[in-house]
Each structure stands twice: as C-alpha cells, then as structure tokens.
Specification:
Elements lengths: L2 E5 L2 E4 L4 E8 L7 E7 L6 E6 L5 E3 L7 E6 L4 E6 L8 E8 L4 E3 L3 E6 L1
Parallel strand pairs: 2-11
Antiparallel strand pairs: 1-3, 3-8, 4-5, 4-9, 5-6, 7-8, 9-10, 9-11
Length: 115
C-alpha cells in the first residue's frame, strides 16, 4: 500500500521560510517522479516542483529561485524548501508520486503566508 504523508505546513509571515516533507512508503522515491502541487481556494491544482529519477528538477516560474525540491533516499522522503514566501503562495500543498502504473497523492498540508 502506497502512502505519502506530508508535514511542515503552517502559518508564516511574508518573507519567511518553511520546509515541507513528504515521507513515502510502498514506493521508492528515487525510482519515481516525485512532485509538489498546490491548490488555493477557487483555483486549480498546479504543479510547483518536480524531481525525477536522474535528480533533474523542474519548477513553476512563480517559484523559481525561491523553492527547492530535494530528496533523501535513505529516508525515502522528498522535501520542498520554500524561501521568500509570498501571500500568493498560500495554498494546500500536496505531495505526488508518478509511478509506471499509477499516480498517488498525499493528504495535503496547509501553508498560509500572512502579509
């Protein structure tokens, strides 16, 4: 059974930082495409960052230079370091795993950035 468990969300002031974690079980993060998505109220879910098996990364233009996705293979965990946070970064952040057969989602963690 695949489980993705996010943690690290919370309330932070604009300009602050947070680090989200996604602990995976049932899959190996280094063998799959792992990503972070976010969804703000009234908006569609959007891709924020992605890391593939080769460790190449992709970032949405809105977060480039501020967010960093990484993984710890020993802990089977993916991280999203978020710096210089803006109020428009407020959303529920979801961990995502794309395997050869299925896509999995975590339950989400709320990030709120106050101005």
């Amino acid at each position: 059974q695949v489980q993705l468990v996010e943690s690290g969300g919370g309330l932070v002031q604009a300009g602050g930082s947070l680090r989200l974690s996604c602990a995976a079980s049932g899959i190996i993060v280094s063998s799959n495409i792992m990503g972070w998505y976010r969804q703000a109220p009234g908006k569609q879910r959007e891709l924020v960052a992605r890391i593939v098996r080769s460790s190449n990364t992709y970032y949405a233009d809105s977060v480039k230079g501020r967010f960093t996705i990484s993984r710890d293979n020993a802990k089977n965990t993916v991280y999203l370091q978020m710096n210089s946070l803006k109020p428009e970064d407020s959303a529920v952040y979801y961990c995502n795993a794309e395997t050869a057969y299925l896509t999995y989602w975590g339950q989400g963690t709320q990030v709120t950035v106050s101005s």
